[in-house]
Amino acid sequence: AQIRYSIPEELTRGAFVGNIAKDLGTDVAKLAAANLQVLSDSDSQYFSVNVNTGVIMVSERIDREQLCGQNPRCFLHLKLAIENPVEFYRIEVEILDINDNPPEFPSDEVSLRIYELASLGARFPIQPAQDPDVGTNTLQTYHLSANDNFNLNVKARTDGGKFPELVLERALDREFRAFHYLVLTAEDGGSPPQSSKIRITIQVLDANDNHPVFDRPSYGARLVENSPLGTLVVKLNATDVDEGPNGDIRYSLSSHNSAALRQIFAIDEQTGEIRVQGNLDFEEATVYEIEVEAKDMGSPTMEEHCSVVVEITDVNDNAPEVILTSFSSTLSEDALPGTVVAVIHVRDRDSGEQGKVLCHVSPDLPFQLRKDYEHQYSLLTSTRLDREHVAYYNVTVSASDLGNPPLSRHTILPITLIDVNDNAPQFEQASYEVLVAENNPVGSVLVTVSAADPDSEQNSRLSYSILRAGGTDPGLDPTRYLSIHPTNGQVTAKFPFDYEQTTYLQFHVEVSDGGSPALRNRTLVHVFVVDQNDNAPQVHFPRAGEDSATQLRISPSIVPPALITKVVAIDADSGRNAWLSYHLVEATDLGLFSVALRSGEVRITRALQETDASAHELLVVVRDAGEPPLSTAVTLVVLVEEKGPEALQGSEARAADGGGLPSITLYLIVSLVLISTVSLVGLAALGIRCL
User: Fold this and answer.
1) Are 212 and 253 within 8 A, CB to CB?
2) pLDDT digits (tens, 9 = 90+) for 522-546
3) Which residues contact 472 (CB under 8 A, 6 or more apart)?
4) Which superkingdom heads the taxonomic lineage of this protein's source (predicted)?
5) What CATH code would you report for 426-530?
6) Percentage of residues in the chain having pLDDT higher than 70
7) Strand 218-224 and strand 303-313: pairing?
8) Could you tell me which CATH class the domain 109-205 is placed in?
9) Is 538-640 in the same CATH topology as 3-96?
10) For the chain, what is the mean pLDDT?
């Protein structure tokens, strides 16, 4: 007989399989007495029988997958032997599968490399999972984690195997996602089901399907003009989501940029740094727009463009410019205040406050600036001008901007004043006093009058002339005696002066300039004629003919010191030249007669004796005090006679003649005093004038 049992695998030891006594319908005690034995066909003894109860139990762990593998049905066969009588029973134990094994993948992770331009529908097999269970407990299905690009296709084979495949449903983009991480789950049909997972890493292989991309569409930078060479303007940042050479970027300036811009800026092809390599001048350009391109090294090359706007910030690097719109370098000295001398235009190439310009001139100059409107000034005279005081001005116009620090420019305007005839000539002296010795040579320079005119050129060309101004003789015309050089003012004598005729001469010298109309001035010239000893004394008494002697008669009884006669002489000169002295130079008897030194009186000094001669010849010399002195001699013949009446008559005559002597002496004294006084006054005035 054959008995069949069914038990699940993996029962614990002692687990109940079946009651053999009951199933055979045999008493348990009989079985025990019959020496019941259990024999197995396998090497392992998986079951045992309790002879006391007749129960078959599990004695070892039973693994259906180890015993039967993938067979859908698994049996263990036992033989039950009984003695007295010998009987054999076949027992078949079916090992039922339980879901004790999950599906197992060959590895925990699998990697795939897929070209990003792979066509849609492409299939990529995945090694299947293995489940040693059978029936519904074996692998039933696969599940793919949610993703955007792949679907799961399970391919069933005729042997019941299930092979999973990844199917590309949506194009890959390595730049969007370079790696895809999926989870494939294998699940069996057990209850509860068991599963296992495998991680699928998909690396998307790059294709040059992306152009470089700048991190911004345009860049902006601000630089100060005159930035040093090498100054960093901006660092560009372009990225290419491709990899390898496809993502290797080179920067360059676009061909759209002008040659001038290329001389100012340079770019590093590796780093994308744009630096200054030329001069930045705000006044030439306030903004630069640089076109830049970025190229990858893929094949074919892909490129991208962007613009860099560089704003130049102005610095105060330009001094103001002063432009003369109108300027006259000459100006009449009689120009009225407010006369426009120059029109000045100022400009500063800087901007803002740095381009605002203020102008000024020195307040010490007779000029001022008037602001007409923005950037234009007029230079005006502020006061009256005087060329004779200042003939030439260097007017410095200072233009300063409002920068920090400010810059300035100084422009010098040379202004020459044109002379007008506004100054009359001025003599160096208000009057001149000249001492001229009489008998001066003809043409000798008596005095040089000098005048100055602060005007210039024709207005300062002076001409001198003599005007009649009167003198000692109101009717005296000075031009008769004098002449003056018209240009140098030298006064010369036309004739020698004779003190005895003219002692003083006064006249005006007029000077006139060459202006139109001419201006004039005068000075007074006093000419004092200085006497020279040019006249010898003239004997007026006693009168005698030329080369003859004067005879005088005296009585032999004359009593000394009786006056015999008086020699009277007059000198036409004056002063010392007219001071006369009388000298007895020769006589028959020098001891008998004497001559008074100053009066010229001839007297007898002793009584006559019989031994004395009857006739005496006296030589009387009249000498003046000039240098050298001049003299005149008179010869007196004194006769000693008894003719008293004749002698007396002679004495009376002499007395009569002598009556005129006091008036002559008074005349000489008064003349001398007047001349000396005038001379002293003139000399004193000349000394005061010199001081």
Assistant:
1) no
2) 999 999 988 888 888 988 888 766 5
3) 502, 503, 504, 505, 506
4) Eukaryota
5) 2.60.40.60
6) 94
7) parallel
8) mainly beta
9) yes
10) 86
